[in-house]
Amino acid sequence: MMTSERPLSSAPGRRSGVAVWKQIADTLGTEIRDRAFTATGRLPSENELSTRFGVNRHTLRQAVAALQVDGLVRIEPGRGTFVQHELLDYVLSRRTRFSENLQRQGLLPSKQLLTAREMPAPERAAKELRLDKGGKVLMVEMLDEANEQPIALATAYYPAGRFAGLLDMLGRGTCTTDILRHFGVEDYVRAESRVTTQMPSAETARLLKQALTRPVLCVECLDVDMAGVPIKYGETVFSGDRVQLVINAGNETGAFA
Q1: What angle do CA 116, 120, 124 make, to 5 degrees?
Q2: DSSP character for 93?
Q3: Which of 35, 15, 37, 34 is nearest to 24 (CA)?
Q4: pLDDT tens by residue, 49-99
Q5: What gap in Å lies between CA 120 and CA 134, rounded to an integer?
Q6: Do residues 61 and 73 make contact, with C-beta atoms less than 8 angstroms apart?
Q7: Pair type for strands 136-146 and 149-159
Q8: What is the pLDDT of residue 119?
Q9: pLDDT number for residue 231
Q10: What local confidence, expressed as pLDDT, does residue 16 receive?
């Protein structure tokens, strides 16, 4: 659930020797860092801010321009001024783990289950999972969150024959780690990741709470067990406004998470 936007503080008291636009930029910058605009993802309109601070639009625009130079906002003509929070580092490595990626940055990971069903394998999933023609997969779609903010829409395909019962366990709230262990997968590694960019669909933009005009990062991945047998093919769409991908080519060791 998104946190509601807190009431904005009152206009700053005038500080002698400091330009008014700079005082406004400092106040708004502090509020952005405190995530005061989380609910909307953008600053209030020029009219609202001019009224709040008791200044004309020229002064207000100077303040907003300074925020843009500092990388705290981006201005989209005709749409508004959008907040740019510090990007989350999402590491792609041989042992890519969602929870660990977030927890090492002091963020709380969570997931919302959107869809879970058995279906004929899409062509790409069948190829990656080495399934025969007509093979079935278990498709699971999740909304990944950091501190209750959506960061990614993840779709995973598991071979139905090997993981029969996975959907029932998932529906009972069993975590994926425990489910895979139940089926004898004590550990797994990332065989490969492919990264591209694209524009989001209307539904993807709605779920990620981002503008349709902003690109998303797309990662196709294949996970294999320690014998090299594919266990999951995934397609994850990351919010380009909140996430940057970090490629780690080292040979990491780490907990199964």
Answers
A1: 95
A2: S
A3: 15
A4: 999 999 999 999 999 999 888 778 888 888 888 887 667 889 888 887 888
A5: 6
A6: no
A7: antiparallel
A8: 97
A9: 97
A10: 65
Q: What pTM did the predictor assign? A: 0.70
Q: Do residues 74 and 60 lie in contact, with contact meaning Cβ atoms separated by under 8 Å?
A: no
The C-alpha atoms of residue 51 and residue 8 are separated, in whole angstroms, by: 13
State the Cα–Cα distance between residues 240 and 217, nearest whole angstrom: 6
What confidence score (pLDDT) does residue 128 get? 97
According to the model, what pLDDT value does residue 14 have? 58
How far, in Å, CA of 218 to CA of 199, rounded?
10
How many residues make up the chain in this entry? 257
pLDDT < 70 regions, the chain: 1-16, 85-86, 249-257
Sheet strands (E) in the chain? 73-76, 80-83, 88-92, 109-120, 136-146, 149-159, 188-198, 216-225, 230-239, 243-247
C-alpha–C-alpha distance, residues 209 and 190, integer Å: 28
Give the chain's end-to-end CA distance (angstroms, integer).
24
In this structure, are residues 231 and 191 in contact, taking their beta carbons and an 8 Å threshold? no
DSSP state of 162: T
The angle subtended at Cα 182 by Cα 180 and Cα 185, nearest 5°, is 45
